[in-house]
UniProtKB/TrEMBL annotation:
Pfam families, per the entry: Ala_racemase_N (PF01168)
Lineage of the organism: Bacteria, Bacillati, Bacillota, Clostridia, Eubacteriales
Necessary cofactors: pyridoxal 5'-phosphate
Protein name stated in the entry: Alanine/ornithine racemase family PLP-dependent enzyme
Gene Ontology CC terms, in alphabetical order: cytosol
The keyword Transferase is annotated on this UniProt entry: no
Keywords for the protein's UniProt record, in alphabetical order: Isomerase, Pyridoxal phosphate
Coiled coil: none
Native source organism of the sequence: Alkalicella caledoniensis
Length: 355
């Protein structure tokens, strides 16, 4: 069945062990983020066998799947700030959740009380990326509110950088987070965790610039795709091809490179622009934007992606005269493409061991 995503579990393991070694050397105990694979059980099992002790995901459905498969023995972290409507499930299935809204935390406290449990939270602070997090000037007020909650354990403080505003992690940003932690503890509430971000922070680890005191990271792309997330640079000694997307050619034709007729909008409401290449050889593969975005890198460098629609990706294959209908084309997916491919029911997941 095609299209398919081939998952090399040995390469996932090797990437994970390399990054765990690097983070452990600077006093960081990261969690492994499973959301890009929709908490795929084989990948999750590999991450645990590599040495990770905590799995993180943004969807409660994925965390429930992990808890069920691993008989509630896996430690889980909910990445997306919870919905009040899911408070009970969050307390039931997540050992820890990231939070930024006091009303939501109160709902978690009530759910924990009803269930006879304590629930851990990491309080997110917004240091300028403008996604989730309380503003630093509000932290004292939030701390006083949290003192009143008997079933919430404030495990630590965390920050998210790069994902929305593109703000790069720096020593100054993380020192600011550590200063907030010190101020928090000065008021008699000790914290165990300072979560310094995601795979965009991995460069600071590799360069020895991570401030002492940052002891937790939330890592996904760096483990699975071997890239940091500031400029998608290759993390030394990791594999970039632990995941390979394979699609089948359903048409090959020589056609003009410019459409003939009046140009309007494409299927997605965009006004397309084309480059005049003359008549050239074009291939269509049976996968489209319903399954992946076009952040794909053909493994054969002679192939170029021209564009795509819901069900088709169009390639320039002029440089490979031997290709024919039925042949397969391989791509290295970017993070967004991998996320979509793993979510799509139309993309078959195939596991291999390269050793």
């Amino acid at each position: 069945m095609y299209p398919q995503i081939i998952i090399d579990l040995n390469k996932v393991e090797e990437n994970s062990k390399i990054i765990l070694e690097k983070t452990k050397a600077v006093g960081i105990k990261p969690c492994a983020v499973t959301k890009v694979t929709c908490a795929d059980i084989e990948v999750a099992k590999t991450l645990l066998e590599s040495g990770f002790e905590e799995l993180a995901d943004s969807r409660i459905e994925n965390i429930k799947k992990l808890k069920s498969h691993f008989d509630n023995k896996v430690k889980t972290l909910l990445l997306r700030i919870p919905m009040i409507s899911q408070a009970k499930e969050v307390v039931q299935y997540c050992d820890t959740s990231l939070n930024s809204e006091i009303e939501t935390i109160k709902a978690l406290d009530k759910a924990a009380s009803d269930l006879g449990k304590k629930h851990n939270i990491i309080l997110m602070v917004d240091l300028g990326d403008l996604r989730e997090g309380i503003w630093p000037s509000s932290i004292e007020k939030v701390q006083e509110e949290l003192r009143k909650l008997g079933n919430i354990n404030v495990l630590g403080l965390g920050v998210n950088l790069t994902c929305y505003g593109g703000v790069i992690p720096t020593e100054e940003k993380l020192e600011e987070l550590l200063e907030l932690k010190a101020n928090w503890e000065h008021k008699g509430m000790p914290l165990k965790v300072v979560s310094g971000g995601n795979s965009s922070t991995i460069n600071m680890v590799l360069e020895g610039k991570i401030p002492t005191g940052i002891n937790h990271l939330r890592l996904g792309e760096s483990l699975l795709l071997g890239r940091e997330t500031i400029d998608r640079g290759h993390i030394p000694n990791t594999h970039l091809d632990a995941f390979v997307l394979v699609a089948e050619i359903v048409e090959i034709k020589e056609k003009p490179s410019l459409p003939i007729g009046t140009i309007g909008q494409d299927a997605f409401g965009n006004s397309p622009v084309f480059q005049d290449r003359g008549v050239h050889k074009r291939a269509i593969v049976a996968i489209g934007r319903q399954d992946v975005d076009l952040n794909l890198e053909p493994i054969d460098e002679r192939i170029e992606i021209l564009g795509g629609s819901s069900d088709h990706i169009i390639l320039d294959v002029t440089a490979i005269p031997t290709l024919k209908v039925g042949d397969k084309v391989e791509f290295i997916p970017g993070y967004g493409s991998l996320l979509q491919a793993m979510t799509s029911p139309y993309v078959k997941k195939v596991y291999k061991h390269s050793k």
